[in-house]
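Field: COMPLEX_INPUT
Field: COMPONENT_COUNT = two
Field: RESIDUE_TOTAL = 247
Field: MODE = joint
Values follow.
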Amino acid sequence: MTSPSSASATPWAKNPTYASKTGGKLAFGLTNTLLGWTTMFVEAKQPEYKTDWEGFCVGISRSIFNTAAGLVQLATFPVPVDFPDVGRGIHIPTPAALEGGTKTFAKRGSEPAAVSPEPDVQARDAAMAEALAVV
Amino acid sequence: MKQLKSFLLAVLFLSLSASQASAAIENWQPSPWTKETTYVEKSINKLGFGLLNGLTGWTALFFEPMREENKFTGIVKGAWRTITNTTGGALHIVTFFIPVDLPLPDGGVHFE
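Field: COMPLEX_OUTPUT
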């Protein structure tokens, strides 16, 4: 039997305080319990599968795992202990990621990319700094 | 005792012949989930592969006669692949938590 080579921690595990960890764990549990079933439709469109049917069938399996992972985390949310072996759960892009121009889902297993400000925002900030320097 | 020995030898001989014959006529390929690196990903993909083959293994009955030039060969091959894909899929589902592969002919069902 193969042991997990790289267990992926759930996102809330990086939070520093007890409140933020349990809050994050509760949110993760609720999201995955209620929306875990949607994975089968998202998975069907992933480019790694030759056909949508293959992705859909793996998606059914992944939906079961995500829902089970959500239930486990929901039931144990007051205890800030992670269950990394159940995976990252469903991928819902954050508003910050959408604002930053990354409108696609993050690739599985990869960390979300750092959001860099838009070029026009940088130009506006530079103009503001210049105007303040003149004043 | 002597009869039992000859029976066991006959079973051994037949099973060896059958495995050699099936290896000669079928293209047994490793399942795609074996490329995954972690235990969880292997389990998820093995269950998904099992669902795909278990639920859609019967489609070989229609696809194989279309692929083969000789329709009779296609029907026989389709019936054989239906059995192997469906049974293999069911075995993958039942053993999804054990990351041991059960190769299927041509890597199982693929709609291409």
